[in-house]
Every structure is written in C-alpha cells, then in structure tokens.
Amino acid sequence: MNVKLKILSTAVVFFTAQVVTAQKDSTKTKDIDEVVVVAYGKQKRGTITGSNVQVDAAKIENRPISNVLQALDGAGAGIQIAAGTGQPGEGSSIRIRGTGSYLVSNEPLLIVDGVPFPGNLNSLNPNDIESLTVLKDASSTALYGSSAANGVIMVTTKRGKKNSSRFTLNSNTGIVSRFVQEYDRVGAADYYVLAWEAMRNGRRITNPNETLAASNAWASTNLISGNLKTNVYDVPNAQLVIDGILNPTAKLRYNDFDWAAPIIGVGIRQDHSISFSGGNDKSTLFSSLGYTNEKGYIVKSSFERLNLRINADSQVKDWFKIGTSLNGVITSQGLAVNGADNNSAYINPYAWTRGMGPIYSPYQHDPVTGERLYDVNGDVLYDDGSLRGVDAAAGRNIIWETLLNDDRTNSYNLQSNVYAEFKLLPELMLRTNAAYNFRGTLNKTYGNRLIGDALGIGSASRTMYLTRDFTWNQVLTYNKKLGGHDVTVLAGHENFDYKQDYLYGYKRNQVLDNFYEFGNFVDNNTLNSYLRERTKESWFTRLNYNYNEKYLLEGSIRWDGSSRFATDVRWQSFWSAGAGWVISKENFLQDNKFINFLKLRGSYGEVGNDALDTNYAYQTLFSLGYNNGTEPGILLTNVGDPLITWETKAQSDIALEFELLNKRVRGTVEYYNSETKGLLFPFQTPVNAGIPGNSIDRNVGNLVNKGYEITLSADIIKNQNMKWTVSAYGTTYKNEITSLSQDEFISGTKKLMKGKDLYAFWLRSWYGVDPADGAPLFVLDQDLFTDTTTADIRTVNGVLVTTNQNKAKYAYHGSAIPDFFGNFSTTFNFKNWELSASFNYQFGGKIYDTNYANLMDAYPQGGAAHTDIYNRWTTPGQITDVPALNSSTVAASNAASSRWLVDASYLLLRNASIGYSFNPGIVKSVGVSSLKLFVSGENLWVNSKRKGLEPYSTFNGTVSNRYSPSRIITFGLSTTF
C-alpha cells in the first residue's frame, strides 16, 4: 500500500480540526447515573455490583497512538502494563489483577461492539473509539464464561446521534525518537587496556611461574592477533598497550565507531481522519475515513493504515430496529527485529548496536591512511567483520544487512457486524447479533546475498495467514419496573467459529538482482501449510435486581462447550453473584453534606481460561514432512491428555465506593482474591518415556492472586477561573502457587513450587568479590559439596564461599512482582490555559538485567563493556562488587546469578500536554466556534535504577534486546466550526 497525503504545512505539527455542533467537557466528573457498557448490554454506573474501569473518547482522540490498547496504560487500578515495543503499530501487553496462568495466555478477552475479537487491535482507528471498558471481577466478566479468566476489555465504536449533524476532521503529525537511552559504555582507548588486563591476569593463572614482565609482554603481543583482531591506532599491534597503559603516542586512524547513528534516528508520525456523525429521528449514521503513517526511529520500521468505517442504525418500526457496522482496513508494516522474539539474532539492531565493541567501524578503511573506502559508484563500502573478536559477530554487519534485507507484512481486514432488535412486548426485547471478521496477512522477507544468512545465494520467504471468525448470538432481555423494584432478566445463546489457513514457503539461490518474488529463486527449501479450526457454543443468563437503586443484586451463569477439549470434558458452567448497598440513599445519610455517595459492593464467581496455543490439546499429534528421500516420514510432536480442560478462576471481590464534599473527592477501596483451579502446566515425564519435550500438558495445580486496589480523585481547586484535579491509582497483590502435582519445575531464572509465586527468581547466590585477589565468590552449597578443603572453596568473613559457579548454592532471591504500582495524574485549568500530566510508577520487584550482564563480561573479546567495568578489582585489599578482569575466571564472573538482579522501581512521565483555548468571541468572526493550541508528548522521562534499563518491559522480570518504546512529541491545534 502506498498512500500519500499532502501535508498542508512543512512544520512538524499536531493538528486537529473538528467541525461539530457541540463538544463534550472531558473534565466532567463521571456521574453515578451515567450509563456504561457491560457484558451484552448497558447499565447505570450506580447500580453495578462489579468492578470496571472506563476510558472514554476524550482521553483517546488527541493521543498519537496506533493501537487502542495503548490508551489503557495508566487507566486504572489493577491494570498492569508491559509497555509495547517501539515497533510502529504494536500494542501493549496487559495483565488485569495479576498473572493467573502459566501455560495458557494471560491476555484479557477482547470484545468489539459486543462480539469476541481475536484479531489485532491495530486494525482499529483510535479516532473511531467511543469508549474502552475494562471488566475486572467475576460479577462483570462471568457472562463471558470460559474466556473471561483474565478480564475483559470491551471496545465500543462511535455511532451517530439522532437529530444532529457533526463533521470532524483530525490531522496530526509528530516526531518519533528513541525514549530509553543506551547503557553507558567505555570508549576505544580504555577498551584496549581492559582487554589487555583480562588477558594478562588470565596468563598469570595459567602460567604461574612466569614473571609479571613476561606476562605483560605476552598480553601486549597477543592483544590484537590473539583476541581483538583490529588495531585502530597508528602504532604497531604489540606496542599498542604496554604494561597496562595505552601507548601515549598512539593516534586514532579513524573514529567512526557508532553503529547506532546510521540506523537509529528520528521518525515522523502522521495521522489523518475525517468522519461524519448524524441522523434524524429514525436513522443515524457514523462514517469515517482514516489514514495513519508512522516511520519508526529505526530505519525501515514503519506502520501504515488506511481504514473506512460505516456504522448505521435505523428504527424501522416502533418494534423493530436494525443496525450494521462495517470496517475495512489495510495495513502495511515494515518490521525491525523485535528482541523479545530474537534476543540474540545477528540482525537484531539493538543487540548489535548495544553489544558491539567500540573499536570496530561499520565501514571499510584504507589500512594505511585510515580513509573511508567507496565503490566505483561512490557508495560507501561496509566492513564484513573478518577482523573482529569472537564476540563481535565476524562476518556480519547490521547496517549493511538492514539496508539490503527486507521484512514487511501486509494485512487486509474486514470486520462486519449486523444486528436486529425486536420489541416483542413493552418489557421484552430480542436482539440478535452476527459478526464476521476476515484477516489476511502476508509477510514477505528477503535475505540478501552479499552478507548474512543467505551469503552468496540470497533467500526469500512468504508467510500467509487467512483467518475467519464468525459469531452469532441471540439475546432476550426482560425489564420490569414496579414501584421501587427494578428487575432485568437476560437470556442468550452464542456460537463462535474460527478457522485459520497457514501457508509458508522459503526459497534460495537468487537469479537476478532487485527482484524478490519466488520466480527469481531456484531452490525450493520449504513449503508447508495447515488448517486450524475451533468452535465454541454457549448458553447464558443474568438476573439484575435493585430496589430504589439502593439495594442491588445480580447473578449470572453461562454454559460453555469448547472444541479444544474432549467430548467428556467439553462442557462446563461458569457463574457469579453480586450484591451492593448504596448506603448514601439511606435516611440517616440523606441530608449528609459530607458524604454525597457511598456504596458497598461485593461479588463472587467462577470464570475460565481455555486460551492454549493449540486447538487440539487432548489429542496426540504428529508432524508430516520428515521424509527420507522418496520415503515418507512422520514424527511424534505432542502427547495429548484426554482429560485436559479449562482452568477455572474463582474470584471474590469487595469494594467501597465514595464521593465526598460535594463530589469533589471521589474514590474506591477494593480487595480481591482470585484462585486459579486446575492450573494448566507442562507436567514433567521421565526422559526415557520418549515424550516430546519430556512433558504433557495437564491440569495439575492451583494458584492464588490477592490484593488491594485504591483509586482517588480530588478537585483541589474548583471555581469559575481555576480548576485543579488530581487522580491516583494504586495496586498491590501477592501471587502464590498453592498446589502442584510435582515437587518443582525450573524454567530459566524461575523455579515453580508450592508456596512460591510464578515470578520468584531461583538463582545462584552471589556473594561478592574477594578483596584479596578479586575472585568472584558465590555462597557454597554445603549440602552437595561437603569437602571444604578444595582450592575453589574459601572462608570469607566467616562464610563458606566458592569461586566455582558450579558449586554455588541456588536459592530464591525475590520476585519480579512489585510491592506497589499504579499511576497518578493531574489536570490544571486556569482561565484559557490547560496543563495535564500523567505518571506511571512502581515500587519494589526485581528485574534480571541480562543486557547489563552481557556488558560486564570479565574478558572483552570484541563485545562492548559497561562503564561499571572501571570499578573492577585491581589491587589487593580493594573493596568492590566487580571482579577482576581475567580470562581464566571469566566463566564464574559472567555466570547467571543473583548478581544481575536490580530493583525494578521506576517513575515514568507517561504523557503531558499544555494548551491554550481562545475566547469564542475572538474566533467566531472567522466562522470558528473554538480554537485551541497545544503541545503534547508521550514517554517523556523515566527514572529507574540504571540508565538503559527498561523495568516495565515484561511482567516476569527479564529483559531483552528489544525495539525499545518511542518518545513522541506533538504540536497542535484543535478547532471546531
């Protein structure tokens, strides 16, 4: 797709123009009589017995986001966000009230306009969204049954309004740049000295009878030829470092060692949409056309979207209403390698630019003059890495490969929904809703033949997914009011059908240059396809009752049958019950001027989770294609458990909601307890059983999340000229495995066992550095190693320690789960000025910083080094936490251990804006109803324990060389006519 729009100004601006008849005040306090979206309907906020958070259009429409899930970052208590990558078009990962599963997905269910949405929300234009509603407890989610264990996010798109007409134009442009800055690393001069030191110290251990002078001379002689391979100074290799000092006469022959600058820079984001909303007393229409184009700050990363939406409703008869939604979307995404999936890949821009030693240039240079070399066309010649150390990726060049390779995904989405409402009786309504979604994605990659994985031959791949899902539900709603009694009964049925076709092809041996279709490649290496299907059928009912909106009762039940499980265990019921008491409606509080609203509510229920990676969990599976020449072959790939079924999450919730001092102070205090029963887990089997992966997926344990949520909002100042509102959310929770049918399960940095949480770190116990000789020390595992007289075991400060990482004691060292996290925001209005800011924060929790660990290598061999290396041990008696650089002890110094854990606390300025609104009388003369100028920004500032660290990138406390988030600065104008 190549859609180009003319930009009216060359300045980088964020421009928003709205032609409207009225504008909603986004600072208006949410009223208890406000109608909000709930499962299969709407309900007054004051009568709800469940827990939910709603984000309306006013908080979405002026933010430069490509994926609507980004709007939930900092939206409310209990919502934990792992910030999305900087890859344009990507969203965030969300946890609602903790992590309740291990083997299956923890992502919430997405509902768009009343039906499940298994697609990617980057196919929705944020400007088309009326509201986002997060359902958190069983009372809110149980009507979605087996898909609701992780909470529910309900997306409602805009629709026309009766007897009105509104024309809206939004157009914005912003600057996209890198947000999280790189770790501090040493420069070229120091790097040679550090590598020399590690070699000399290692030589002293391997050749203990050699003199110090001889060891120094050996390190000087072998520094380049035996290790780093490249000397960028104008002195002979053996004279570059002498006795641990860089030759003072040495001068750089060239100084272009920055690998980041050519591929990491500044991008531009632009977003344009035009919409019409209106209608008469019978029919309404909302239609929009949108275009988004974002160039990421990494070269060749981009996201482009063109969408057309039509939402129409018509009251054909008093008893009959019909409506439809149609959204057509085309997206094109240029992909930079995401480190979350390709952490150590050679073509990962972050792994390369972060880890490349500061003595290697991306370009070729004249060996005598040091001048950069060019080809006959005047194009720069790139270095192929033949003269680099072993940790500097010899034979690769990320800049050259990024410019020559290509990775692009084009998607075609059609989302359609039609409904009909029949008023059978004054109190009885039948609504049927049918939705069909189609998503076709085609990923094309090209690997060049000049350097990299396809050196000399070239390669191309095509990956295609054709996904279709169909949902049809029928819902009867009966509502009867009699005096103060209000009863609503809902009953419904729903079918869901999902199909996905997959096709993958890979060819090598390119014929012609600059042509990347399959016909230009000779060798068919791989061709594979599959069809995956799953279905679900559901029956459900809900009862709502309230008396004078003071005493509230609610109950629901849903029966689900899923094709993911065997017939005997396919059906299961999920239910909830909730109650509320609006205390402020009691006589003893009717005239209370301090308390305006006070509600106590509670709920209990059970919901489920069947979001396995496979649609055939109960079946034993085989893979085809393992052929021996012309002889066909198959391979056992999965052993199924015919009894595997849903995880069930039993949730209880109690909360107190209040509004005080003429509604100037508002808040909620809430406690929840959520127990996952039948925890799905890779049950370990004996190695000699011949089972792939040595595990079978089964329901084998229980897991509990419980915690508190606090929401507070206050109008500190509120008068005619000034208003200052402050809001804050906070959440704390504990996670614990309460039962497990096997003693323990170790995976990476975690060990799962009864009594511990999912994210508890299980690591070697780092003790520190021996002041006597700079050796790395670990706490000794005395249970396994009883002979304490060996040379690698010592006593330091009365503690038995070891220099051998293989004898270290493993133990738990904290958890990735924070002690407390949330958001606080402020909005200040003074006459025509408005200032707002929103901060995310986290206290406590640990993060295992492998990126930092890789930069603290005790033996530099071409990889970059962190400036903390300067604190290394060098002198007997020195107190430090960085071991001596030593090629002989490098395995222990670099070993995975508690040394690499760091406090995950942080404070993030998520977004901020300042704006000025002109007085209507000034702009009315030019036909404008309102005019506002503003400046806004996303991801503006962060304070964490270490520069370069992303403490909010994952939930499990690990990091990767990923495309870190973008900072977006926008300048703008908003006007109405």
From TrEMBL:
This is SusC/RagA family TonB-linked outer membrane protein. InterPro entries: Beta-barrel_TonB_sf, Plug_dom, Plug_dom_sf, TonB-dep_OMP_SusC/RagA, TonB-dep_OMP_SusC/RagA_CS, TonB-dep_rcpt-like. Belongs to the TonB-dependent receptor family. Residues 1-22 form the signal peptide. It is a multi-pass membrane protein. The lineage of its organism: Bacteria, Pseudomonadati, Bacteroidota, Flavobacteriia, Flavobacteriales. Residues 49-152 form the TonB-dependent receptor plug domain. Keywords: Cell outer membrane, Membrane, Signal, Transmembrane, Transmembrane beta strand, Transport. GO terms for cellular component: cell outer membrane. It comes from the Bacteria. The keyword Acyltransferase does not apply. It comes from Chryseobacterium elymi. It is found in: Cell outer membrane. Pfam families: Plug (PF07715).
